[in-house]
Amino acid sequence: MSGRGSIKKDDSGRWMFVVDVSAGQGRRQVRRRGFETKKAAQEALTQLLTEMRSGAWVEPSKQTLAEYLVEWTETIKSTVRESTHFSYGRNIRLHVIPRIGQIPLQEVDAGVLNSLYAELLRDGHRTKPGGLAPRTVRYIHTILHRAFRDATRWGRLSRNIADAADPPRGGPRVEIVTWSAESVGRFLKQSRHEGDSYVAAWELIATTGMRRGEALGLRWADVDLDEAVLAIRQTVVTVNHEVRYGTPKTKAGNRRIDLDLRTIAALRAHRKRQNEERLLIGTGWRENDLVFCKVDGEPLHPDHFSREFVRRVARWQFPKLSLQGLRHTWATLALKAGVHPKVVQERLGHSTIAITLDTYSHVTAGMQADAAATVAEIIAGTAHLE
User: Fold this and answer.
1) What is the pTM of this model?
2) Per CATH, which fold does 181-324 belong to?
């Protein structure tokens, strides 16, 4: 983009400049008025021409933030997971547009965003008094950061204005609650004793650290009991409370997991019972090849699945634990047993080992103390060689 400018006085006696802008096949004029002196107008003109030549100038637009965000969410629909797209749209619709959507996109700055974040923290909750959690507001900032990044790439903004904003910190670290190995063993024993239809699911999560959606999306075609291995290729997620099939979020999530003999036995027993139920249902069976499903073969709702676990925990009087806590329990027990963090990372499907080490820092801190003592003993043991 290029342009040529001229300076003159307007009808009010103040100075102004006009720039003839040529871009592609078109030509238009950009005008700026209200300068008190010719020097001020010249400086502003020079700045504008410099931005045009460097490609940093963005043509003025009256598009509001709301208009842009609606356009943006529709544009990125094919580039993100369905559940992610729904989450982006919901947060924008509920928390951003009602508060700052009327502001022109090019007038939004770090101050506007910081005010938004403060308001959401103070009274952003829609169903009860109080504000949103810092982690939620930070997630909204992440959404806006991506939206403004794309606006910059598309030539709507000269820079990502979210870079200068100050989102809240994620809040205090949530304490990870886990069970002891003895509690896990007693829970699985009770589940088998009760004839629990979910016992194989609890055992699989407890011995692999699989995510809830990964277990519910698991197909028999992805399980090789003879080779004692399964593959994570499909997940179950919810979009607006409805069950959907998905794929692992990251490359690391698409993985193979080795199985132990007890878990294999539980899966074999589960498959036998499932086949018997399938024959009883007959034509009412919906073939989705799911390992864990409703009695008619349809996928289980993840929230229902989690509630069933919590109900059993309460009914059988075990220490309070969420289904996610069962995954955390596997990781904690593995690290305490001396399993290398890299193996734990790969088995859990974390994208980096840093996530594993940070999530389970309460365990790895103890491992560092053990390592210090071990190495010191090795060194001390060599003293007699001198």
Assistant:
1) 0.75
2) hpI Integrase; Chain A (1.10.443)
